[in-house]
Write a structure and sequence with these properties.
The protein folds into two domains: 10-154 and 239-247; 158-233. The protein contains eight helices and seven strands, in the order αβαββββαβαααααβ. It has helices at residues 33-44, 64-78, 131-141, 158-172, 178-187, 192-199, 211-223, 228-236; strands spanning 54-57, 85-90, 94-95, 105-106, 124-128, 148-151, 242-247. Helix 4 crosses helix 5 (178-187), helix 4 runs parallel beside helix 6 and helix 5 runs parallel beside helix 7 (211-223). The protein has 248 residues and is an alpha/beta fold.
């Protein structure tokens, strides 16, 4: 099984995707080759009932939701022996009756997945944006090494982040050169969220076709309290977040 390339036309199959991806236009998605192959290998072993439930740990805006959604759509489109299910639950006090025919309140919904997390028939893939908070949930409700921890890197490989910069430039109609696209990827530390913030920046007189222009744009995204990058960083500092549960 190979990774699709930029020349593949995902827009043609997007209408067949059961899950609309938050990334927007499907061509904007750039594969993280190492992680993608690792998770494809994990899904291939599910029919053999040897794949263990996993938890992806990463900060907000690291690309993990886009990754999980593309994995779901890939498996659905493949129409093979693995049938994926995807749903999200906010970590807050809720009535279990909203999920099943029960009426007792529970202060922590993740606890109801205690037994399911051990399943080799339908292993779980859990993601969360607040690492310490999610680890507490795993220790309290999914203990006993039921989930294999997978640390999702914020930074992409250099060639992948360069591709992100080039695709965003094309789709957002913000001119860059080959040289400045490389500069953008490097100055944004190969972080796809930072790259998008820069290319879609509200910085005054933004010019990403020159070295100085890229430097000024990065400075704005780092220093301005109203920049999308700074707002995103502030969001990661919140204590309460969302947990996404993805079932095979």
């Amino acid at each position: 099984m190979t990774t699709p390339t930029h020349t593949d036309t995902y827009s043609a199959v997007q209408t067949h995707f059961p899950l609309k991806e938050r990334i927007g236009h499907p061509d904007l998605y750039v594969y993280r080759q190492t992680q993608w192959e690792d998770f494809l290998n994990w899904t291939r072993k599910i029919p053999k009932m040897v794949s263990k439930s996993r938890a992806i740990l990463a900060r907000k805006k690291s690309g993990k939701t886009a990754f999980v959604q593309r994995l779901f759509n890939h498996l659905w489109q493949e129409n093979g022996s693995v049938l994926p299910f995807y749903f999200e639950i906010s970590e807050s006090k809720q009535w279990l009756g909203n999920l099943a025919m029960e009426g007792e309140p529970d202060s922590s919904l993740p606890g109801i997945f205690h037994g399911l997390s051990e399943s080799k028939i339908a292993p779980m893939l859990v993601t969360g944006s607040y690492i310490g908070w999610l680890m507490n949930i795993i220790r309290q409700h999914l203990e006993g090494a039921r989930l294999k921890i997978f640390e999702f890197p914020t930074a992409m490989a250099p060639e992948e982040s360069l591709e992100v910069a080039l695709r965003l430039s094309e789709h957002l109609e913000v001119p860059v050169t080959n040289a400045t696209a490389l500069q953008i990827a490097e100055m944004c530390r190969h972080d796809p969220f930072f790259i998008r913030c820069l290319i879609d920046s509200s910085a005054p007189d933004l010019d990403l076709t020159t070295e100085r222009g890229v430097q000024e744009g990065v400075k704005y995204e780092i220093m301005s309290n109203t920049s999308e990058n700074q707002i995103g960083i502030a969001k990661t500092a919140e204590i309460i977040g969302d947990t996404k549960l993805f079932h095979f």
